[in-house]
Write a structure and sequence with these properties.
The protein is mostly beta strands. The protein has one helix and 27 strands.
Length: 276
């Protein structure tokens, strides 16, 4: 562990640096346990800044309608931090703790669920860096009552790597696209993928499999056993490819119950290959 400046210039004395071959990863547990930097051969792959990098979405992903969800007959209200909705969970706003057993290429972190989330539990996140890949695992466990939850990641991959090359090309074959309403939430209707730019959720029933290619520079493949991925490319600097355990507003439309004997776990891999 070593001190490092966070993307907004503050010191994060808990920053963790992992390395494997030519790959370097920086995790910032004080900034929501986000990946602050991923470089391959000295080239940064992630958009920089205190709200960018790659952050965990937990205990829900994307927008939750009006910030409300039910667990049985109980209605809960979350902070409305995206217009009328609540977005991307609370895990990105809290400091995480480092778990024992870190090595030069792997580390695990956790935090205990607390207000405004109304249920007790623990979220863990593991990073395992290799020369040609990053393996991510996140789990949500209850230490009390059962509750619905979601988990996923929101990476901001640079659209252009800044070395005079071309912008990234995206390639994937979804089973469908969730029709997006004017409120930015799925309507419940499945459609064929529409034209870019996207801020849309896609179903991939055989697992997430999306490739970004910077021609003659690098190919990056994002995979996960999860069956949902949001692709967001409305901002010129970056392309977001977000594997997640359920669709936006899924706490209401596709609740996945976390119980004492059935925690929620999600995994993803970013695998890269230099080109040219």
């Amino acid at each position: 562990m070593a001190t490092q400046e966070t993307p907004d210039g503050r010191e994060d004395e808990h920053a963790v640096h992992l390395r494997a071959g030519a790959a370097r990863l920086t995790v910032l547990p004080d900034l929501g346990c986000r990946v602050g930097s991923l470089t391959v051969g000295g080239v940064e792959l992630l958009r920089q800044g205190p709200t960018f990098g790659s952050f965990p979405m937990v205990p829900w992903c994307g927008r939750t309608r009006d910030g409300q969800f039910r667990n049985g007959g109980v209605l809960h209200q979350m902070p409305r931090d995206a217009g009328p909705h609540a977005i991307h969970g609370t895990g990105r706003h809290v400091a995480w703790q480092a778990a024992p057993g870190a090595t030069g290429s792997s580390a695990c972190f956790y935090y205990d669920l607390a207000e405004p989330w109304p249920y007790q539990g623990r979220v863990s996140q593991r990073f395992e860096l290799s020369e040609d890949r990053l393996d991510l695992t996140m789990s949500v466990e209850t230490t009390g009552d059962s509750f619905p939850a979601q988990a996923g990641w929101h990476p901001w991959f640079l659209r252009n790597l800044g070395r005079g090359g071309q912008d990234a090309l995206i390639d994937f074959t979804p089973g469908w696209m969730e029709e997006r309403g004017d409120d930015h939430l799925p309507t419940g209707r499945r459609t064929e993928p529409g034209p870019r730019p996207w801020d849309d959720c896609f179903g991939m029933p055989d697992g997430v499999d999306v490739t970004l290619t910077w021609p003659d520079e690098l190919r990056l493949r994002i995979t996960s056993p999860a069956q949902w991925v949001v692709v967001y490319d409305e901002q010129p600097p970056a392309i977001c490819v977000e594997p997640q355990s359920g669709p936006p507003n899924g706490l209401n439309t596709a609740p996945r119950l976390v119980t004492p004997i059935d925690p929620l776990e999600i995994r993803a891999t970013w695998a890269w290959e230099p080109l040219g």
